[in-house]
Structures are given as structure tokens and as C-alpha cells.
Amino acid sequence: MPSEQITPLVSICCLAFNQKEYIGKAIDSMLMQQTSFTTEIIIHDDASTDGTDQIIKQYAELHPNQITAFFESNNQYTSGYNGRMALTFLYPHAKGKYIAYCEGDDYWTDPLKLQKQVDFMESHPDYSVCFHRWSNLNMVNGTTSPDICQGLIPEGQDGIDINLDMFFDKWITQPLTMLMRKNMFNFEWHKKYKFYRDSHEIYHLLLAGRGRLMQFNGGVYRIHPKGIASLNSPQQYCENYLPLDREFYKITRIPQARRIYCQTLQECSNVYTPSSKTKAFNFAFEQFLLNHNYKTFIKNIKRILNYHNNNNSTPSEK
Questions:
Q1: 57-97: pLDDT as tens digits
Q2: Cα(41)–Cα(272) distance, rounded to whole angstroms?
């Protein structure tokens, strides 16, 4: 049977936008995978203006039976799709039993990454998703740092199961590490949310089945100024994530979401204390309405007042 007629077991999905410095290495890391099964690579270029699209076209021409590429004439992320980009433009084209994900500025380092993950998932049909370790590469200063999973997996073990408490306690994954079982992914999940991110996908996957964090380090997450979230300022973090965390708790009502929502409100109150006393007060009050913790509320009020009483400059009340 011709190779193009073989249904792939894994669909590798990649979003790209203005990443000409990185996209080649990302695609090479997908092509280097050594597997006993067939894979496909689906790339969506979101109207790049720096030549990223031309690099993708070259790879697609060289690997026509493995790479399928889609090119936008208008940027869809800024048109409102943002967190639904993969869900809208990649996943519907995936033919595989499993979906792996790697953004155009990240890359895989282990040629057996997919084989290891698929072997586990094939022998554990009750698992909906699995992840692995990764490294962070700061493109501004060139430093490499480990992930935040140090100590989670006992020495000598190849992985651990993850649950909602672990997932919401710390961000123990990056999208480039994920392999999910497509038949456990419900394409209707997103409709209940105005704000939607990969964290929503993982939450619902962990409700649909079990999750696994594998010990091996399989990729690199790049931190750089062009990254959507990599180098957000504290104010940008608040503007981006507070509405998300607020909505997620109001819809799910799970205690883990409530804890995250409270933490984000505290961070936002801290962040805005120097620049906007009003915003800092509002965030502290919203937190109080959520957790009814008088002690924390009074502590926040004193902190905000003390800062402005001791600061000679007049804050901006935006």
C-alpha cells in the first residue's frame, strides 16, 4: 500500500507565526522521530510576515506525504481565536489516534519521544493524556533552566500519574510535551468558555481519563520576547489570566480553580499596588468576596495604604 494511504497513528500539530529563526528546528525535530508507526505533521501558519511561511512551504514540498500545511492570509489569533487556534485550525485535520503538539518556536530533543509515549498509551487504554519533562531555553540571555518537575517523580521510576490537584498546584507541563488520545477529546468542551487555553484542554482530558508524567526529558521550550506568554510583564499577566481564572472557577466550581483564582487576585493586587491604588483595592476586595478571609483582606488593605503613605509619588489611577 502506498505510504500516503496509510492512516497515521500520531498527528503532530504545529502552530506557527513569525518564527523564521526557529521553525526549521521545530520541524526537523518532528521529522527525526524514530517510530514503528506512521506519523503526519500538520502545520498552520497564521499569516506570517517574516518568511516563516516560505520555510514551511519548502519543508512541505520536500515531505509531501508527511507534511500538510495551511496558510492564512489574515492573522486569526488577533481575530479572536487566540486559545482556540489548535482546536479550530489543526485538530479537525488530524487523522491519527493520538495528537501530539509542538509550537513553531519549540522543539523536541529525543528521537524516541513519540515512540515512548505511544508505547505507554497503547498499553494503558484508560489514559487520556501523557506528558514528559522538558528544559527551558531563554533566548534573551542564552541560559537553560530545568522544568519545575524536579523531585516529583521518585528516583528509579519512569513516571507518575497526575491528578487535578497536582496539575493545578504547579504547571507541570508545556504543550510540546503532550500526547493525547483523540477519542477522549471532546470538541464541544470549549463552547462553554469565553476564554479558552491549553489548560482547559488538559483539565477536561484529566476528567475523561488518567494522566501520566513521564520521567524522560524530550524537548525544549523557548522563552523569548516574541512568544505569546513567555515574557509577559506582570501587568500583562493580570490582564490576560485574571479573566480566564475568574471564568474557569465560575463555570467549574472546583476547589482547585478557586485556589488559582484567589492566587491570581493576590498577585494582581500586589502588581498594581505601586501604579493604581484603586485597582489594588478592587482585586483585594474581589478576593475577599471569594474566600471571606478577613485576615488576608485587612493585611492587603494595610499593605496598599502603607505603600502609598510611604511613597512620595502620586500613583496613576488608571
A1: 999 999 999 999 999 999 998 887 778 888 889 999 999 99
A2: 43
What pLDDT, on the 0 to 100 scale, is given for residue 197? 86
Distance CA 53, CA 104 (A): 11
Residue 167 C-alpha from the chain's centroid: 12
pTM: 0.89
DSSP one-letter string for 112-130: THHHHHHHHHHH-TTEEEE
With beta carbons less than 8 A apart as the criterion, state whether 121 and 108 touch: no
Residue ranges and CATH numbers for the domains of the chain are 3-223 (3.90.550.10), 234-309 (no CATH)
Look-up: residue for cell 513516571? 159
Give the CA count within 13 Å in the CB-facing half-sphere of 175: 21
> Between 277-291 and 255-272, two packed helices, what is the crossing angle to 10 degrees?
160
